Amino acid sequence: MSNLIIAPADQPDREGSIMNITPESAGWKYVGFQVIRLEAGQAFRRDTGDREVCLVLLSGKADVATRSQEWLAIGSRMNIFERTAPYSVYIPNDDKYEIRAVTDLEVAICSAPGNGNYEARLIKPEQVGVETRGYGNLERQIHNILPEQQTADSLLVVEVFTPNGHWSSYPPHKHDQDALPAESLLEETYYFRIQQERGFAIQRVYTDDRSLDETLVVNDGQAVLVPKGYHPVSAPPGYDCYYLNVMAGPIRTWKFHNDPDHEWIMVNPNRR
């Protein structure tokens, strides 16, 4: 298996964690990503330390508390593929949080360096920007959970639903150069869920010089590290694809560069 693919544990550990990607384990500087699965009544507690955190309730309901805030029985999506926007909670660095499962629960814990500029807050589904992007078999549904238009120090968080037979993160684009205003440097993780679980997605990660050029078969519950390069995704016929993206870098802005070989698709979609 490629070292860009991170597989979940077969069973949660005693705290509920099934996946934990740190900057150290990924070999980069900014993005951290963890997935926990809790049974009703089980709790998970952490200090944020020097990192800001965005908790995304992937499915289920929870009580969430920080040092100064508490939100009870949040969460309305019982299954990711209901395709409704999730509840999320933003928590700054130098804080702490407790997640207590009201129902069986899956939570993504997204993290990046924090500067203490913003207070903890609840992000309700109606505050999530929902858009349809692309056309034809490039069409997909976007949930902008923590886009750059919303306040945070480093984190950018978005989820994408790609219908079976469609492509997303397409045309292939990258954001691996600190070359603003044309392109920003952002590390990125993709956390995949597939409907049905026996299905798969395809993701290619490649650079212009092909020093990195991998085509990945990604199964339900796996994550992909994108340290650099272009990174399109395909959902095979029969298997709808979900992924949660977490991005962070030295400057909190998403400026991407399309692969010149394929940019014509957006300029003139009828051209062959």
TrEMBL record:
Gene3D superfamilies: Jelly Rolls
Keywords, alphabetical: Isomerase
Keyword Electron transport: no
Alphabetical list of Pfam families matching this protein: KduI (PF04962)
InterPro entries: Deoxy-glucuronate_isom_IolB, KduI/IolB_isomerase, RmlC-like_jellyroll, RmlC_Cupin_sf
EC number: 5.3.1.30
Domain of life: Bacteria
Coiled-coil segments on the chain, per record: none
GO molecular function: 5-deoxy-D-glucuronate isomerase activity
SUPFAM superfamilies found in the cross-reference section: RmlC-like cupins (SSF51182)
NCBIfam families per record: myo_inos_iolB
Protein name as catalogued: 5-deoxy-glucuronate isomerase
